[in-house]
Amino acid sequence: LLSEHVLSLHSRSCADRSQSIAGGSQQSGHADEDQTDIPLKQRLKKRSGEDIDHIPAALLRKYVAYARQFVEPTLSPEACAELKAFYIGLRESHQSVENTPITTRQLESLIRLSEARARSELREVVTKDDALDAIEIMRHSLFDGAGMGDDIGLGMHQTTSSTSMAAASKSAQRKKLVAHLTQVAHTAQNALFTIQQLRSICGEIGLSMHIFDETIDALNSQGFLLKKGARVYEIACM
Q: How far is residue 102's CA from residue 43's CA, in Å, rounded to a whole number?
């Protein structure tokens, strides 16, 4: 109910938006349509041989000021659905007493990120792709902020150096596995992996097989690997 309420506050009707604004948003969406299947992290990387024309600082400040003053994006139903699904999944994976509860603050952050993504392109409607970019940013902030600890940086800290070193080693292996799976999924255009494929990939990149089950369970509880059926998982960072 809380998530419904928070989302509704940001989902005002767009029926009275001008046709010119709506048309501009659609054109922008079509222009980037071929980029939607590429992770944000990959899109932000400088391509080999790419010549970047930097925006003058003064012009950038004016652009940001204009966007803040005149652009007030609203969430589309598709964006709401993506944010709600991710938020609910995050809450469900943090129900144990060892983890700090996920609150509506995380949902508000996702909404603000999504709105900022649309505002940066002077668009009045937050699209599904804006929401997915915001979710990817949130995933990576939780991912890197905790070093992939079991509680994604929202739970208890280790108290001894030996325990911390062991946790850091596991975290590094999980991070390495997620990065490799994301790359494989993007190359093959298939985000699904059987348990046998996961074992094979772990062996290829040198992960400790004696903690394989623990690693898969942890990534599943954190939302990086989604269980899609009997012994089948989907990498969620693609």
A: 29
Pick the closest to residue 111 from 94, 134, 92 (CA basis).
134
- CA distances, 51 to each of 5, 47, 48, 120 (Å): 45, 9, 9, 22
Cα–Cα distance for residue pair 196/199, rounded to 1 Å: 5
pTM above 0.90, yes or no: no
CA distance linking residue 236 with residue 85, whole number of Å: 13
The 10 Å CB-count burial string (b at 16+, else e) for 166-203 is ebeebbebbbebbebbbebbbeeeebebeeeebeeebe
From first to last of its 238 residues, what are the pLDDT tens digits of the chain?
545 655 665 554 444 444 444 444 444 444 444 555 677 878 878 788 888 888 889 998 999 999 999 999 999 999 999 999 988 887 776 655 444 556 788 888 899 999 999 999 999 999 999 999 999 888 877 655 444 444 444 443 333 444 445 556 787 888 889 889 988 998 898 999 999 999 999 999 888 888 899 889 888 877 788 888 888 998 876 5
Q: How many other CB atoms are there within 10 angstroms of residue 218's CB atom?
A: 20
Question: Which residue type sits at 98?
Answer: E
> DSSP assignment, residue 50?
-
Q: Give me the domains of the chain, ranges plus CATH numbers.
A: 1-14+58-145 (1.10.8), 162-235 (1.10.10)
Contact between 47 and 97 under an 8 Å Cβ cutoff? The reply is no
